[in-house]
Specification:
mainly alpha
């Protein structure tokens, strides 16, 4: 039971890390797209 709980905590923290990294990646990509397509006049 304790091993399962520790494993679940490790997996959930890894998921949180991946989600935050993905969110940062999406934000930077969206920012670059916004800057290149909307801010810079075509």
């Amino acid at each position: 039971m304790v091993d399962y709980y520790q494993g679940w905590r490790m997996v959930s923290s890894l998921q949180l890390l991946l989600v935050s990294q993905q969110d940062w990646f999406l934000r930077t990509n969206l920012g670059q797209l916004y800057h290149s397509y909307l801010v810079v006049p075509q």
